[in-house]
Amino acid sequence: MAHDVIIVGAGFGGMGAAIELGKMGIDDIVILEREDDLGGTWHVNRYPGLAVDIASVTYSYSFEPNPNWSRLFAPGSELKAYASHVANKYDLRRLMRFGVEVTGATWDADAAEWEVALASGETLRTRYLITATGFLSQPKLPDIEGIEDFAGTVIHSAKWDDEADLEGRRIGVIGTGATGVQLVPELAKVAGHLTVFQRTPIWVVPKIDFAVPGPVRTMFGALPITQRAARFANSVALEALNTVGVLNYKYGHRFNDLAALLAKAHMFAQVRDRRTRAALTPGYSFGCKRPTFSNAYFPTFARSNVTLESTSIRRVLPDGIEMADGTVHEIDTLVLATGFSLWEKNFPAIEVIGRDGQSLGEFWRETRFQAYEGMAVPKFPNFFCLHSPYSYTGLSYFWTIEAQMVHLRRVFQEIERRAARTVEVTERANAEFLGTMSGRLGRSVFQLGSCEGSRSYYFDPHGEATLLRPSSVIGARRDAHTFPIDDYAFA
Ligand code: NAP
């Protein structure tokens, strides 16, 4: 017997979809989750220093404000607790199956159902399939010679080992992305010596963060409108940053120059050594890859137990790392803050075979990365991929989720109204959407900035910056409410 809906992934995206469909009275929903609990990235990531980098008033569902955030930028554990709260409040846990890895899904045209294959060998059937597998869910192990022969402890940031004893150890950390920037100051506090292996520097601006005073939290709880006002103000600021500095770089590039100047001044105030400053200064435009916020990162490099190594790595030895110039750094613990295999393993995260045997991964790789409204692809009926090309909108992921919830609601209402068996986006609508998005990218920092050498994961393997939706949050929300329903074919 087929389920009505299978959702793959019990993070905020999957939970948002389940809440929306539940409101419509669809009850036979199963949420399959690879991990042993819900929360997605906020369940998996628990490295020291983990905190959200979008203010928490905005980084949460608008319909489920949390007056209890302890800081402006809440620590990761609070996001995980918030996810649990949402699951309990909306009674989602009963829909979830944990420790279930989905390997693939195949469209059965005769039955108009998806057959979903699990790693256990079990198969499930469903009328509708929604993948909510996250953008950053497949940890990347760097392809560096000798890494498998390293004799000490290896820890990836997304598979943190709480038992690992780091006190006094000679730690090497590879990676200086948003994770590295949060992790490095924490590791430096406990390491005997810490070597930071940097391939590409990151733009780091000051982090204005503070504990939310008790009376403010009380006010947020008693008068939710005050928290909504704070959310609105912060959201407007983030929306301005994104639309000016990222999407309309053609007109707003001076803003990026200013942001770069701020980051340089921040570094100048915190790093006295000129050579260290030079090594930490990015050579690409601000905005080409996700910049980050920290007040603790730069000062770490002044510590006597920290070395910044910016020469390229030649190979990993059993007891250290050898650089291209022959220098060897002896280490006993290797921390990989090397990010995620986004395009290689996440688009899509499972093998999806649609109509006429079309493979979604092959389609994207052989043509271009594309998805109508960042959610639907021709030849994939009854399928919505929440983490698609052009889906991520604005700076807070919750904006993406909530626009997608509206989109799903409209499609499922129409399915019900027409008593349809199948729904599939038309080739025409998909092509038009792709054309619009591609056109808008022409004004963005990704096409007009100096992004060579940024190694930004915003760019897909074809060299197109298709991860982010080049539209304002307001625009994406409006599109979710107004896209012509005939962009889908119902049968
Ligand atoms: P990332 O941005 O992809 O950074 C990975 C780092 O590892 C980069 O510095 C990369 O260098 C380096 N690296 C990868 N392979 C390497 C190799 N073979 N040799 C040398 N260096 C290598 O990953 P991330 O730092 O985990 O962050 C990913 C995203 O997660 C962020 O952009 C952000 O969206 C999100 N995040 C959010 C928060 C938050 O909200 N608080 C915190 C952490 C992360 P190259 O740049 O040279 O490739």
From TrEMBL:
<dbReference type="Pfam" id="PF13738">
    <property type="entry name" value="Pyr_redox_3"/>
</dbReference>
<dbReference type="InterPro" id="IPR036188">
    <property type="entry name" value="FAD/NAD-bd_sf"/>
</dbReference>
<protein>
    <submittedName>
        <fullName>NAD(P)/FAD-dependent oxidoreductase</fullName>
    </submittedName>
</protein>
<dbReference type="InterPro" id="IPR051209">
    <property type="entry name" value="FAD-bind_Monooxygenase_sf"/>
</dbReference>
